[in-house]
Amino acid sequence: METKRATCCWRGLSAFGIAILALTAASSVSSAQTFPAKPIRFVIPSPPGGGTDTLSRLIANKLTETLKWQILPDNRPGAGGNLGMDIAAKSAPDGYTVALGESANLTINPYLYTTMPFDAAKDLTPIVFVGTVPLVLVTSPKRPFDSVAAVAAAAKQKPLTFASSGNGTMGHLAGEIWMRRAGVELQHVPYRGGAAAVTDVVAGQVDLHFASIPAAASMLVDPPTLRALAVTSAERSPELPSVPTFGEAGYAGFTPQVVYGVVGPKAMSPQIVERLNSEINRALQAPDVKERLAKIGVALRGGTPADFAQFLTEERTKMAKAVADSGARID
Fold first, then answer.
1. pLDDT digits (tens, 9 = 90+) for 154-172
2. Are 109 and 328 in contact (CB under 8 A)?
C-alpha cells in the first residue's frame, strides 16, 4: 500500500513538474511575441562619431523606422570598449540591454588585459554577426615597396617598421601574424590613434601600416598620399578593386578583419535572442542599410546566433596566439 501511495505521489509530482515546464515555455513564447514592451538600451562601447557608433545608430534607426521600436543609444567608451561591454554583461538578461561589440572587446582584450571585468566568452550572449571591416596594408609612395613580395624581400634584408593605432589593436596583431607567416622581422611602432599612425606613414617616417579600408580609402585616390599593397579580405574590396588580396599575394588564409556583432548578457531567453536576431538580420538586408554599410566599408555577414558564436570561438583562438606572440599586455 505504501509503495502504491509513493508511486502515486511521484506521478503527481511528475505531472506537476511537467505542467510548470509547459507554463514556463508558454510564458517565454508569449514574452517573445510581445517583446519589446519598453525601450531597448543599445550600449555603444565607443565615443560618438566612430565606426562602432555609426554602425550602432544605423541599426537602431532602422529598427525604429520599420518596427517603431524605441532604441536608446548609450555611448559608454573606455578601456578599449571594456567599460561599455561590462555594463551590457551585467545587465538583466531580458533583452532590454544589448551592445554592439567589436574585435577589441570580443576577441582581443581577454588576452591583452591583465584583468578583465567580465568574461567575453561566458558572460555575453551572441545575437547576430553584423559584419567585418577588412584591413589594407599601406605604405608611402616615397617608399620603394610596390607589392607584398617587395616588402617581404626588403624585410629579410633588414627589419622594417609598421605603425598601429595602439598595442593590441587589430592593425597591430595583423602585423604580428603576417611577419611570422612571411618569416621576416617587423618593428612595431604604436601610436595613440590611427590618425597619428597614418600621418607618419604618409611622411615616410614609418614603413608600413595595416589600416582599415574606410580610414585609408580617401588617401589612395588622386593625388594618392598612400600606396595600397594588399587587402585582408578573402575577395577584393569593392572600394579598392585594383588592390590584390593577401591570398593572391601568396598568403592564403591571412584574413584579419575588424569584427562587429550584437551581443547581450548571458542567460537570455532563446526566444528573445531569436526575435532580436531575426529583426536585426531583416534590418541589415534593407537596401538602404546595405548601401550605407558598403559606403563605410562593412562587409555584411548576418546569420544565426550559433553562426556568430562559432565564429567568435574560432577568432578568439587566433587572437590569443597573436597577442601571446606579440608580447603585448595592458595592466
1. 999 999 999 998 888 999 9
2. no
The one-letter amino acid at 180: R
Note the pLDDT of residue 62.
97
Percent helix, strand and coil across the chain, each rounded to 5? 45, 20, 35
CB neighbours (10 Å) of residue 315? 17
Phi then psi for 145, rounded to 5 degrees? Answer: -85, 125
| 293-309: burial string, b at 16+ Cβ within 10 Å, e else | beeebbbebbebbeebb
Q: What average pLDDT is seen over the chain?
A: 90
User: CA-to-CA distance for 165 and 260, rounded, in angstroms?
Assistant: 18
Residue 303: what pLDDT? 97
Torsion angle of the four alpha carbons 240, 243, 247, 250, in this order, in degrees rounded to the nearest 10: -170
Whether the CB-CB separation of 309 and 262 falls below 8 Å is answered with no
Q: Is the dihedral of CA 195, 75, 330, 134 positive or negative?
A: negative
pLDDT at 116 over 70: yes
Does residue 194 contact residue 215 with C-beta atoms inside 8 Å? Answer: yes
Residues 6+ apart with CB under 8 A from 111: 316, 319, 320, 323, 324
Residues with Cβ within 8 Å of 117's Cβ and at least 6 positions away in sequence, in order, are 82, 86, 89
Write down the pLDDT at residue 31: 58
Tell me, what amino acid is at 174?
A
Domains of the chain: 37-131+257-326 (3.40.190.150), 134-231 (3.40.190.10)
Tell me the pLDDT band of 123, cut-offs 50, 70 and 90.
very high
pLDDT in tens, 24-56: 444 445 556 789 999 999 999 998 888 899 999
